[in-house]
Design brief:
Layout: H1 3-8, E1 15-21, E2 27-33, E3 38-43, E4 49-50, E5 54-55, E6 59-67, E7 70-75, E8 81-86, E9 91-94, E10 100-104, E11 109-116, E12 124-125, H2 127-133, H3 138-145
Antiparallel strand pairs: 1-2, 2-3, 3-11, 4-10, 5-12, 6-9, 6-11, 7-8, 7-10
């Protein structure tokens, strides 16, 4: 959501709530503040799948798994692929500049908090990471990293 749309639709506490149905079937329930901080409850589709790889220049993301499991993938500083399978109650903090992606198992639920500067437009695609993660199947994630 761009800043102009956000400001036009803010509620009395400078917060807007939205719903978004993603192309991969995920459902996202969001609360976004005028200062750009952001909370999102994401419910995976009935089939599970990868999100889109990305990075942020100025914001930090905090992910926590409520139910099901996810795989968190990122490029380490030397561009080495790291993958971690996370279950209920597990969490991770993603610092600015880290290329990352999530695989959400069927019907899993996560919570995401984003904070920092410029959260309205601080999302950049990472085709380099997508080229690696999108080919990884659920069975491979569980067998190799689970």
């Amino acid at each position: 959501m761009d800043r102009e749309t956000l400001e036009r639709n803010l509620g009395p506490d400078n917060v807007i709530t939205t719903f978004e149905q993603m192309a991969n079937g995920e459902r996202k329930y969001k609360m976004v503040s005028a200062d750009g901080s952001y909370y999102c409850r994401t419910i995976a589709s009935s089939q599970g799948g990868w999100q889109n790889s990305h990075f942020h220049n100025h914001i930090t993301e905090f992910y926590v798994v409520q139910s099901g499991w996810i795989a968190y993938a990122n490029f380490a500083n030397d561009q080495t692929l790291e993958i971690r399978v996370m279950g209920e109650g597990d969490h991770i903090i993603v610092e600015p500049g880290v290329h990352h992606n999530l695989y959400m198992s069927a019907n899993s639920v996560i919570h995401t908090i984003k904070y920092g500067l410029n959260t309205h437009s601080d999302w950049s695609a990472s085709p380099e990471l997508d080229s690696v993660t999108q080919a990884l199947m659920e069975s491979e994630l569980l067998q190799t990293y689970g």
